[in-house]
Amino acid sequence: MRWALLLLLALAMPARAEDPALLRLMQGFAAQPRSEARFTEDKVIPELDLPLPSQGLLRWQAPDRLEKHTTSPIDEMLRVEGGRLLYERPDRGIRREFGLEEQPEMRALVEAVRGTLAGDLATLHRYYEIGFTPEGAGTPWRMVLSPLSIRLRAAVQRITVSGRGAQVRSIETEGGGGVTRMQISP
Amino acid sequence: MRRLLAALLLLAALGGGLGALVGVRADLAEFLPTGRSPASTFLFRELQSGAATTLLLAGMEGAEPAELARVSRETAAGLRASGLFDFVGDGTVTLGEGEQALLFRYRYLLSPETRPEAFTAAALRPKLEALLEGLRSAASPLLARFGFTDPTGAFLGLAHAFLAESRLEVRDGAWFAAEGPPRALLIARARSGAGLDAEAQRQAIAAFRAAFEAAKPGPAQLLLSGPGVFASEAAASIRADVRLITLASGGLLAAFLLWRYRSLMLLGLVAVPLAAGTIAGFAVTALVFGGKVQGIAFGFGMTMLGVTVDYPILLASLRRPEEGLAAAARRIWPTLRLAAASAATGLAAMLGSGFPGLVQLGVFAGTGLLVAAATTRWVLPWLLPEARIAARPLPGPIRAGLGMLRGRRRLAGGVVLGAGLLLLALGGPAWQRDLAALSPVPREAQALDGELRRQLGAPDVRVLFALGPGTEAEVLAASERLAEAVAPLLGQALQGIDLPSRYLPSEATQRTRQAALPAAGMAQAALAEAMAGLPFRPTAFAPFLAALGESRALAPLTAAALAAEAPTLAARLSPLLFRRGEAAQGVALAQGVRDPAALAAMAQRLGDPRILFIDVKAETEGLLDAYSRATLLWALAGAGLVLGLLALGLGGVRRTFRVAGPIGGALLVTLAALTALGEALTLFHLASLLLLAGLAIDYSLFLAGDATDDTMGAILNCAVSTLLTFGLLAFCGTPVLHGIGLTVSIGVASAFLLACAMAPRPLLHA
Which among B215, B392, B726, B747 could disulfide-bond with B670, CB atoms 3.0 to 4.6 Å apart, if both were Cys? Predict the structure, then answer.
């Protein structure tokens, strides 16, 4: 009888014991329906001698709309909403629309950022193994996302998101021998 | 009475057994002609059994755009999962990983950019600069993946060209019609080598509907079109049309006959020759045409045999009070025999037309007619030896009206003359030159098909080139020669052309491109020069140099290899390059043709035995003209024969012309009426005119003698019966049925009235 009770208890427990600090952080993100921030980005590509810088604006609107508007050195727009991705480059008259479901790698990359901003831990878990370090006195919190899919891992080995409070301050994407560092300032 | 019931039962059993034994073909393949020139033969074979028959076009409407897009995406996913389709286009077309790998591997053999000068430092420099610029953009993951192995962009260019769809609007991952209420569009090509049989088409359509239902469409509606839909669903709707009309007109006819004769026995009497004629016609047609009867010929044939109800009606009505049925049959037989023989002779013109559907129809109706007449003569008297059926006297006003009409030959002559003048004034009858009007597919279905095709940008092919036959390499080489010859005309005589060599270059071309790739040392030197001053690391393009070496060693790509590894690309190629028996055959589809004559002249100049220019419109029009001419010629010959028969049977030229007068007059009046109504004449109108001539012979023959009021009444009963049968057809949506109904209705009315007017005035004491 007692065994059975224990078993029931075990079943009732959440499958993962979440870090309470991570849960709190996610609740903090979930409480912000919209945000806007500036970013600067540096792409380091192993085949190139020097990094490629860019900057622009990030916009988030709950539940699922994320926009990355690069203003320099070129003007381009990347927007995801629901399952659709839109790429626009006005100076070349380019406008393309894709379905995220057709591009599993892209979907995972999008969900890394979107899942964080939405405070949607379940989605993050669907694509990544999460290593979380809570915020310290002088150090930001850090969430290291390692792709679960082998296919994705061939292109992206690790995404490191860090920030203070319910604000993302940097996103670092490592893959294919290169790294892209994005700094975000509110 | 007992014999009649037994005969009806026997006929029903025979009919059922025959129906079960002999299949009815539903597809249109045997209904339409096979063509008389190489061009038209190719064209019709393609129309009937080619890759075109595997196409399904769909529109979805009746809900919010976002919802329509969802339904469209999910339907498309369901279609892809079913495995029954080679290709599903819905706005989310992408290349699979395996296909990308294949394209990537063969990029330098497939890309038209592969030329020796493309690999010089001068040509590479701008490519490298563009790559650097692209790496700064959001597309950098893509470029980082392909750019260093393929800095010339051969692969991305290929992928882009292969996936470039028509300028369809994409919303939420679905194609949408540019104009009108929101309508999501889908296109699918059922899996098959070339062409589908009726069963496979049915399966594909069922799978399509199932996928749509599985997408939980809610209020959204599916509009489906394509040759397969025409063949199976439209044919079914025609059959339903025919069945409904048969039932309705049968009911009306039965009610009319009951009112006129007050005898159920007469209905049985009428049914026996009709059933016997139908069964005989069916059996003989099946025997002549290899065990199968075309469903549409069967449907029309049944309708045409409706005229045989005349025979038992005449027999019953013309019986004198003191006579038995057998004696009456013996007495009227010479006239009846002459009428049936002349009518069947008239139908013989259909046999000469050479149009397959019409030939079957001629055999079916001709056989049925003769058998029905023979049944009336020999079987009916034996079935009901003591029958005493008599028509009720005609209602007074009608009798008076008909009496007034009798003997007014000048009036009749005036009407016919007027009709002739009207016809002249209208410029003679208009001939239908559009194949669509001959198609048994209902007009709305044809209109929907045209609309979906336009919205999907599926070209309404007006001009095409047949390539081959020959080996695959020969057909592809012909395709390349055509591409070269067409190039200067692009943008002027035509907008574009879809060629098989666009997807798969010929072996010779692939080998030429391999030869154009630079040797390792040369490539390295050119690259080093192009990279000078750019921030690329020295080893950045090592994979590119390696790929050049690999490409030089590849075996050229074949259609078989493409089909095995790249289904999406193969689906693009398969309608343009396919097997016909041992040989390969290709098609090139010209789009936006403005000047077919220039294309014809170009093909003429080429004089290439493997490139055949086909102007679809001119070809079908020419073909229809040829068929119409043949039918007309045979109809004239038939008319001569009928006149001869009549002269023989009546024993005098004068009497012959008195009988033939109303027939010719009725034909003229009908032609004038049809032309005035704006009907363009088709082969089926011609066939109906032949049928009409057969009917008019009955009326004319029986009224030409010393016709009594009873004879007049009997003929009126016949004419009304025919009007009831055919009048309803005129309201059908199917062009062919409509044409037959209208022609016969107008013709019967005018034939009866003219025959009445030509009949001698009754003697005063009668």
Answer: B747
